Amino acid sequence: MHLRYSYRVYPTAGQCALLARTAGCARVVYNDALALRKEARKSGRPYPNSTELQKLVITAAKKTAERAWLASVGVDPLIQSLRDLDTAYRNFFDSVSGKRQGRPVGLPRFKSKRDSRQSLRFTRNGFRVRSNGKLYLAKIGDVRVKWSRALPADPSSVTIVLDAAGRYHASFVVDVEPARLPEVDAEIGIDLGLTTYAVLSDGSVIDNPRFLRKAEKRLKAAQRELSRKAKGSKNRAKARRKVAKAHAKVADTRRDWLHKQTTGIIRETQAVYLEDLNVHGLGRGRLAKSVHDAGWSTFRRLLEEKAARYGRYVGIVHRTYPSSQLCSDCGHRDGPKPLAVREWACSACGVLHDRDLNAARNILAAGQADRLNAPGGPVRPGVAIPHRARPVERGTHRNTGGTGREPRTAGAAGIPRHSAGGGCQGKLISTPAARSTARR
């Protein structure tokens, strides 16, 4: 299982200039290769493969006067940019053929030097973790790293990322064995909402922190200051970076909170059942800001990633399942109700229900029925086929699950590491799993 570990890095001013130059060269190589493939398509010739592109836009280009400056940077990030182009084309063709699920993926586009986010990937030949804790990058030098946690194994690659807030991160990819947690008997259903973030079938309630709403005043002041700066001026660039830092703080706080909540749920329960909410559609309505602030998709993704790593189960109940209309005691369907109705009494048995708690209990029952009674398929039409969560290419940035630090042992390249079986840390990476849904 591949995990991704991210750390803050602090390059010097000279190293920042070298990283910017390398990112610019990688962008030019990417655009040159894309232009060659577009030209080949217009002329009816076959697409040049990666080997031919590498010879044309890197090896041969270095010998020309127009691209001689490509030799001043490491070749590893240039080659990786061509692989990124291959991945972009592969995603497009898989989307057209139906092999890739989800929203359609378009053709690759040219990269702009005005992009606020830049990334450079180095493979084993292009980087090395020094014994003193510094990260060596080819033709960049030793970069200082803030080791917030230990690497569990030797990394196979590292990606240097510059975000819109001007922060540099080093994202390592390591290969580790899955750490299965001891099995427990608890299973829960979760009903997500906006008034309260989540209501669990056991009666627990998770309050909605509303990170964006609380930071609106600070964001409003920063954006007003940005709008008053002259376009193209240095003061405008400073104001833009200030706005980006304010948004990054909100995103980091939300991500940290989501990791803590999902880690606690995965540790305490063996199976978790969620409703397949149409977040994309809700994010375009009148509640769009609140929906995006809640981060429901990230909550579900983190649960699936950690369940895949720690031997838990995540079941998804189809969005057409009437969880808010059924009585969790007698099963009578009482009909749809407006959102303003938070409590209702069953017309058949007379039991008074809390709307969210009743929905969570119905989600638990539906998920258990699909998982235990019909492991080969759904028991009702219109209900999604349960699936075990598979790894995807996103995850945690730091360990938030444990209550204390664990004993350390010698790690990769002298960096101390925790013993196996620690908290939910690391980032699962692989091709995103396609979710199969039974059609009504």
Q: Would you kindly provide a brief summary of this structure?
A:
The chain is of the alpha+beta class and 440 residues long. Helices cover 36% and strands 18% of the residues. The protein has helices at residues 13-43, 50-59, 75-97, 211-214, 216-227, 234-268, 279-282, 288-294, 296-310, 355-373, and strands at residues 2-10, 118-122, 127-129, 135-137, 141-146, 157-162, 168-175, 187-192, 196-200, 205-207, 271-275, 313-317, 343-345, 352-354, 394-395, 408-409, 417-418, 427-428.
Beta-strand fraction estimate: 15-25%
Give the N-terminus to C-terminus distance in angstroms.
35 Å
Rg value? 25 Å
Q: In this structure, how is the largest beta sheet organized?
A: 7 strands, antiparallel
Number of helices: 10
Order of helices and strands: EHHHEEEEEEEEEHHHEHHHEEEHEEEE
Query: In percent, how helical is the residue content?
Result: 25-40%
Annotation, overall tally of beta strands? 18
The largest sheet has its strands arranged as 2-6-7-1-5-4-3
Return the structural class.
alpha+beta
| Silhouette | elongated
Poorly predicted regions = 385-440
User: What is the averaged pLDDT score?
Assistant: 85
